[in-house]
Amino acid sequence: MQVYLAPLEGITTYVYRKAYNRYFGGVDRYFTPFIVNKKLAKKEIEGILPENNPDMVLVPQIMSNRAEDFIEVAREIAAYGYDTVNLNLGCPSGTVVSKKRGAGFLACPDELDVFLSEVYEKCPMKISIKTRIGLEAEKEWEKILSIYEKYPMEELIIHPRLRSDFYKGPIRMEAFGEAIERINVPICYNGELNSVADAEQIKDTFPQIDRVMIGRGVLRRPDLILQIRGEKVSEEDMKKRLSSFHDEIFEGYRNIMSGDRNTLFKMKELWSYMGESFEGADKYLKQIKKANRLNEYENAVGGIFRDCPISKIMVKS
Ligand SMILES: Cc1cc2nc3c(=O)[nH]c(=O)nc-3n(C[C@H](O)[C@H](O)[C@H](O)COP(=O)(O)O)c2cc1C
């Protein structure tokens, strides 16, 4: 089973990916969060620079509904040594959807068809797609699939939710199964894989699937991919890895963010997930949330690593 780390805008930055790859790894493909500009901005260039993404396979992701823009930015990305890009057709955010981008583009299947025919004809790179199954109703999927069937996608990554489900609504497995029946390119499953058992269930239900993508499950418990691969790590070793992983990310943000507040913002967001890797960390997690200064933050984090055991789910599974 190949395992991919999902892109999470603002979270799976190159700082995060690099540290993850060093202390956990086991990821077959990383994806950048979406690039939306016609021309790469400085931050986006830093995100794809090979030296910022060492020893990993990285696929830059583009979000666009204009073929020319997509091709232009893909060409720029190619100049950094990449041969594949991913198209985002899943982002559910209101500002994105209102511009008919991300999941919003699924509402205009005819325009999407024209867009895809142009990019698959003219773009010099391999293109994979990451998609939801529609905007508001499962019946939209049929038409979307009839479009996807026509194009030589590198792979199709499906998060089987509607845009209106955001990140919480039901996973629509039937729609996912339908795609497996109809689409002739490799299909990757994405959505709510939060434990080894979840990954096994997908394998059992869809034995044809040889790749999955995981996002929040890995943020909550960075050991997850190692566990899926059957690697055993002792509690002591896991704590050491988490601590080094944390320190490298913290150091990375301190070096590149302007001001402590921005660094704290990044680290707080990370802990809103990674807090679940520890037992009984509530008191310290509250302190992290409230911290206004780096030393307050560091004291709270020190408390977690000193006093809180690794979460039972991580040790047991
Ligand atoms: C905060 C946040 C940011 C995200 N940013 C992106 C993004 O930039 N590109 C993308 O394709 N998906 C993005 N996603 C969706 C994830 O890649 C993934 O599809 C989704 O979280 C479901 O997988 P999971 O249940 O394993 O987390 C984001 C999700 C969240 C919660």
Topology:
Layout: E1 2-5, H1 14-23, E2 29-35, H2 42-48, E3 58-62, H3 67-78, E4 84-89, H4 94-97, H5 109-122, E5 126-131, H6 140-148, E6 156-158, H7 173-182, E7 187-190, H8 196-205, E8 211-214, H9 216-220, H10 224-228, H11 235-256, H12 260-274, H13 282-290, H14 294-307, H15 312-316
Parallel strand pairs: 1-2, 1-8, 2-3, 3-4, 4-5, 5-6, 6-7, 7-8
The structure holds flavin mononucleotide.
Characterise this structure.
- By secondary structure, the protein is of the alpha/beta class.
- The protein contains 15 helices and eight strands.
- It has helices at residues 14-23, 42-48, 67-78, 94-97, 109-122, 140-148, 173-182, 196-205, 216-220, 224-228, 235-256, 260-274, 282-290, 294-307, 312-316; strands at 2-5, 29-35, 58-62, 84-89, 126-131, 156-158, 187-190, 211-214.
- Strands 1-2-3-4-5-6-7-8 form an eight-stranded parallel β-barrel.
- α3 (67-78) packs parallel to α5, α11 (235-256) runs antiparallel to α12 (260-274) and α13 runs antiparallel to α14 (294-307).
- The protein is globular and about 55 Å long.
- It starts with a strand and ends with a helix.
- Residues 6-9, 33-34, 61, 88, 90-91, 130, 159, 167, 190-193, 214-217 line the site of flavin mononucleotide (FMN).
Name the beta content range.
5-15%
| CATH architecture descriptor of the largest domain | Alpha-Beta Barrel
What is the number of strand segments? 8
Secondary-structure element pattern, one letter each: EHEHEHEHHEHEHEHEHHHHHHH
How much is the radius of gyration in Å? 20 Å
CATH topology of the largest domain: TIM Barrel
